[in-house]
Amino acid sequence: GSARRQQSWCISAAVTVAVCLSLPPWGCAAPSPRPGEEKCAGETCRDAAWNGGWDPASSPSLDTTFCNIPRVDMPRDAAKMRYSPLLKRPIIFRRKQGVDGNAAARKACERARLMDAHGDDTVILSSANTYSYDKKRVKLSAYLEPGSEFMKQHGEDALANQTWYMFGDNDHPAWKDVFGAYIEPPYYSDHERLTGYETALSFGIGGSGTGVPFHVHGGGFSEVLWGRKRWFLTQEGVVPQFDPNRTTLWWLNHDYKDTIPANLSFLGGVYDCVIDVGEVLWFPANWYHATLNIGQTVFMSTFV
């Protein structure tokens, strides 16, 4: 209610101020409009034609204005990024060009273009539970079929181990139009890449209400190319209460109310925020995290 919204504003402001005071000059910038506001307003934002052919419709229960993860401008220098104290906790980097920061990749990921280029390709789906151990192979055209079990608005009743999700297990050579167009966040310099340092890209598409419940792995970046994605994270060593075979949406509707937001005095709580196009979220290694897609969502993760 209003108390939680007031709390969210205070927490976000306090965390942002504290982080900014400890950072180099590039670290924090004046508030800016949400990505896309200058190009999209009102009903236009909910129009699938404006959204690259992806349906942005979603249940209001998925969304939130609460955010306790600071937003800062993305640095250009890889070393400044990699050695920044920012990366000790989740942080959202804003691309300087906003929604146009990955314009070529977004173009390649318009629904009609993907259907033309890859509709007959077989894609590998993973079960959307914590361990994602089950796999299923379908044609992309079947996965993206309107009203299909995959791209429909998902509810909380479906079990996570019976929900299928396209993320990872990508055929990079066959999908070079997407991976080749994507501009990664700066992390390794060109010289370091020549000496063996490398990142790993994972591409995904999900229906509204889908996502992956709490799980843990190495660190990296997550960027939404179309749609929006809500993130929940807990600090390394803090294991949230969750059922690995229940969806993130079920957790949100049943267990979220019992959580406490992370803040400067209680770092063991939950970090919660929605990222938009033009934003890149850093998730630290070994932090439990869960995701929830708001509207049909196209996204790329960069694992470091």
Radius of gyration: 18 Å
Helix content: 10-25%
Q: How many DSSP H or I helices?
A: 8
Strand content: 15-25%
State mean pLDDT (0 to 100 scale): 85
Walk me through what this model shows:
It contains eight helices and ten strands. By secondary structure, the chain is an alpha+beta fold. 37% of the residues are buried. The radius of gyration is 18 Å and the shape is globular. Strands 1, 2, 3, 4, 5, 6, 7, 8, 9 and 10 form a ten-stranded mixed β-sheet that branches. The protein has helices at residues 2-21, 78-82, 103-108, 111-118, 140-143, 176-179, 190-194, 248-254, and strands at 71-73, 91-94, 122-127, 135-139, 164-167, 200-206, 220-234, 270-275, 279-283, 288-303. Helix 2 (78-82) links the parallel strand 1 and strand 2.
